[in-house]
Amino acid sequence: MTERRPTPLDPYPEPRPSETLDDELAYPPELGADAIAILEGRTFLFSDALGDVPPGSIGGLLHDDTRFLSRWELTLGGRPLSLLQSRAVDHYSAAFFLTNPDLPGIRANSLTVRRLRFVGGGLHERIAVYNPLPRPVRFELRLAAGTDFADLFEVKGRVRDRSDRIVVERDPTGLHLRYEVPGFLAETNVRATRSRIAEGIDGEGPGGDVPPTVEGDAFVWDVELGPRRLLDVVVLVTVRSNERTLELLHDDFGEQQEHPEGALTRWLEEVPRFRCESPLLQGVLERSILDLAALRIEGEIGGEPYVLPAAGLPWFMTLFGRDTIITSLQTLPIGPELARGALHLLGALQGDREDDFRDEEPGKILHEIRYGELTVTGETPHSPYYGTADATPLYLRLLWTYWAWTGDDGFVRVRWPNVLAALGWIDRFGDRDGDGFVEYRTRSSRGLGNQCWKDSWDGIQFADGTIPYLPIATAEIQGYVYDAKLRVAEIAERLMGDGALADRLRAEAAELFDRFNDRFWSDARGGYYVVGLDGDGRQIDSMTSNQGHLLWSGIVPEERAAVIARHLLSDPMFSGWGVRTLSNEDAGYNPIGYHTGTVWPHDNAIVAAGLARYGFRDEANRIALAQLEAAGFTDHRLPEAFAGLRRDLGRFPVRYPTACSPQAWATGAPFMLLATMLGLEASSGEVTIDPRVPAELGRVFVHGLHAFGTHWDVEATGSTGRVGLTH
After folding, report:
1. Using CB atoms within 10 A of its CB, is residue 357 exposed (0-12), middle (13-18) or buried (19+)?
2. pLDDT of the residue at 19
3. CB contact set of 682 (below 8 Å; sequence gap of 6+)
């Protein structure tokens, strides 16, 4: 019998049952390109454009990775409503303007229906039906609610049937649903708190109560609505997760929340202000500030509070090692709070044992943490899961960058044990075979096959499309390790007084530099860096955007940088909207493949920074402008990824299917691109710039950048500029 060799497609120590066609058919329907998601903290609601969550779809109200509503459908006269317009208003609220379909006695488009909702600790929804006609109309308004208490990992796949364990109780004003298994409890409570008919389109005139009836899983209002009368309904959904019953954070739709002591308010008051001559750049930066605020999650560990960015809406509203670190790197000049929170929490959760199921090892930085039933009961390893090989060296890069921008020696000293543990992981567990490269291979029956940033099963492949054997050492991870060792050497020497460690790390980095440039370089295609080495030490010879990460890390010799820059901006790699993850000349290229030809904003921001590091400022600006122009087509927000289609095919960017939006490192990308255009750096108590602002963007002024415990103003036009303390 031939020995089974693991690949990223089939990485597990034990064979899995083969997937069947039924498994493929089990995937639930999407909610459409105009679906609307709103969030507050770890609570989010994902619905279609009507505001509905059809049963069996991927939508719902979720908190801490559990779905508390899997059905939320409004009908009038037994039929769905018709859409006029809908959109998110704030990150936590949305408005839906609807009208009636053609009904007996009521012509289509006669009534105005509004749904105003917000989330935060639950759901608040106000439904208003207005009759502008000169005669009364009779109709039934029905709001159906239900839940499957699915774990988030099930929502986009096959949801197990929990119906025999879900207890449903009804009373005249509400539905109460409860699910409990050993170690896990979830409750959903739905109540109609207001039901009245009043005069006027705003419902401010005199009126009377019209309480609903609860029929099965639905609230039903059977009403006769007089001329110029409004049916005004408020429904609240509160949830309980284990021992914690959440309270709604907001009181009314459209309220001006003013919590002067709150961390969010303080953060928004402290972020820099941008005044850009380009409306496009101004709009993108302002939108990114708001999205970054929306993605912030707060907590406390070890007696110290933290604030950090969740990875993305809707599926990644939690801590991710790689995503959180890169977002914190991108946004440090905006304020150090996110980076400090990420370093604190990731350091507190750093691996301290060998646990194969969770891919945990001493010194390793986690990949992802989850809180749903499957994690709590031990069916999945995300408590947390450590299956990433790049978060650990990136953690070291973030700590150095935080130190460079803040001069916070005390915090770095506190984190020094984390640094030493991370270095130990790189040398011992990261390089298990002793070949001098960090590679990955899961030891978990539920682990990830690819454990680099391109972590889909086909994210790393040969140029002919075949999938390599594990373990795999990807190129950019070696660059991250090289960079991390040099930066930690500086901290060891200047702050910790450990010259011996500094010398050792610099020597190891120099050895890695030579070894890497020997093994990962290929003379084919005019010379380039392959994406990795497979389990047999073979070069994985696809042409990828990872080469830009190598420039960012500094592991590329000066004499090779120009050829890499040419590759990255060549037609096979550059779509016109940005650098593709995979060359369109490689066999596995797919313009809508997750990591096989799409254009990722965070990836492009790193590529641009790498190009600028080696002096290719015009090339970096070309990428920056392309990304900003793409954002102009998506309400100034960069989504997780774009399709890799050529720009001239449609002259507008095409979003990747199911792209997270907002997504943290896409939200942070404009700040990194701006820093690259400005040549913005901080060191030894000073902020400096070396600007190359494209003429298309004109003057850029940033008021109140954060560095060294104070604020700085930066102004630049073209290649001239100034920096000074904020007055």
Report:
1. middle
2. 40
3. 333, 404, 405, 688, 707, 708
Beta-sheet pairing, 122-131 with 710-717: unpaired
Q: Structurally, how many domains does the chain consist of?
A: 2
Q: Which of the residues in the chain have pLDDT under 50?
A: 1, 17-25, 255-261
Omega within 30 of 0 (cis) for the link into 314: yes
Residues 198 and 338 in one domain: no
Distance in angstroms (rounded) separating the CA atoms of residues 673 and 683 = 19
Q: Considering the chain, what is the average pLDDT of its residues?
A: 93
Domain assignment of residue 27, yes or no: no
225 lies in the same domain as 90: yes
> Could you read off the pLDDT of 22-66 as tens digits, one per residue?
343 355 667 888 899 998 888 999 999 999 999 999 999 999 999
Q: 21 Cβ partners below 8 Å, 6+ apart?
A: none
Is residue 91 within 8 Å of 37, Cβ to Cβ? no
What pLDDT sits at residue 91? 87
Cα separation, 66 vs 662, whole angstroms: 20
Cβ contact 205:199 at 8 Å: yes
**20 is a domain residue:** no
Dihedral angle at the C-alpha atoms of 25, 29, 32, 35, nearest 10 degrees? -140
Domain that holds residue 425: 267-725
Query: Do residues 212 and 296 both lie within one domain?
Result: no
Tokens (6 digits) for 714: 């930066």
Comparing CA positions, the residue from 276, 251, 269, 244 lying closest to residue 42 is: 244
**In this structure, what DSSP letter does residue 165 have?**
G
How far apart (Å, rounded) are the C-alpha atoms in residues 187 and 176? 7
Q: Domain check: are 287 and 430 in the same one?
A: yes
Relative to beta strand 43-47, strand 60-63 is antiparallel
Q: Is residue 260 part of a domain?
A: no
Amino acid letter at 483? D
The distance from CA 166 to its chain's CA centroid, rounded to whole angstroms, is 32
For residue 517, report the phi and psi dihedrals to the nearest 5 degrees. Answer: -70, -15
Tell me the CATH number at 352: 1.50.10.10
- Pairing type for strands 273-276 and 710-717 reads unpaired
Could you tell me whether strands 166-171 and 137-146 are parallel, antiparallel, or unpaired per DSSP bridges? unpaired
Q: What is the pTM of this model?
A: 0.94
The answer to whether 446 and 357 are in contact (CB under 8 A) is: yes
**Nearest C-alpha neighbor of 596 from the set 390, 454, 466:** 454
CA pair distance 59, 64, nearest whole angstrom: 15
Domain boundary among 215, 245, 275: 245
Q: 702-723: per-residue pLDDT in tens?
A: 999 999 999 999 999 999 999 9
User: How many angstroms separate the Cα of 624 from the Cα of each of 221, 275, 663, 687, 715?
Assistant: 54, 18, 18, 22, 18
At residue 401, the pLDDT reads: 98
- Could you tell me if 417 and 554 lie in one domain? yes
Domain assignment present for residue 9? The answer is no
pLDDT at 15: 58
CATH for 108: 2.70.98.40
386 and 476 part of one domain: yes
Helices 499-519, 475-494: crossing angle, 10 deg rounding: 160
d(CA 241, CA 170): 20
**Number of alpha carbons in the 13 Å side-chain half-sphere of residue 12:** 12
Residue 352 near residue 364, CB atoms below 8 Å: no
Return d(Cα 598, Cα 642) in angstroms, integer.
6
CA–CA separation, 299 and 459 (whole Å): 33
